[in-house]
Amino acid sequence: MMIFENGELWVRSDNGLMHITPQKTITYQKEQGLPSHTVRVALQDRKGKIWAGTGNGLAYLKGDRFIPFKDSDLDKVSIRSMLDTDEGLWVGANNGLYFISHKTQKLQKIGGELFKGSGVLALFKDSRDILWMGTYRGLYRIVDGKIEQ
Q1: DSSP label of 30
Q2: What is the DSSP string of 91-111?
Q3: What pLDDT is recorded for position 17?
């Protein structure tokens, strides 16, 4: 769930992503462009873009529709976590860890096959600029560009 200062609320569910304002409620589902009705994570990035991680891929809101983020690595993948940083958007999925640069919008897989079959369930960046990842196989972090368990 995301709550904004202006009273807007975004709620993720197994039946889509709801946008609740004092005036109305809109439910986004596959018919509005989401790759799946099951929305596991949602966030607003630093540029104001709303992202939805679903059980079947990643999408972002443009106007009144979601646009699937097309990349073969994220097609048909369950998105489990997201984190927005100054550099870009980190995406945790059931098949690995990904990074989308704010500058280029290019997707990069991080760690190769290290997280395959493990799933990246949680992402956190601490005050020392260290990225932490919670997985089914334990806790990992990236320090000086190297992944440690």
Answers
A1: G
A2: EEETTEEEEEETTT--EEEES
A3: 96
36, 47, 53, 91, 97 from 119: Cα distances, Å: 18, 27, 14, 11, 8
CA distances from 60 to 44, 113, 137 (A): 9, 26, 29
Contact 56, 16 (CB under 8 A): no
pLDDT digits (tens, 9 = 90+) for 83-124: 999 999 999 999 999 999 999 989 999 998 888 878 999 999
Which residue, chain included where needed, has tokens 């809109």?
26
Rounded Cα distance between 44 and 39, Å, is 14
Structure tokens at 144: 């000086």
Secondary structure E strands in 45-145: 50-54, 57-62, 65-68, 79-84, 88-93, 96-101, 107-110, 120-125, 131-135, 138-143
Backbone angles phi, psi at 65, to 5 degrees: -135, 150
Chain-centroid distance of CA 78 in Å reads 10
**Is the pTM higher than 0.90?**
yes
Contact at 8 Å (CB) between 101 and 88?
yes
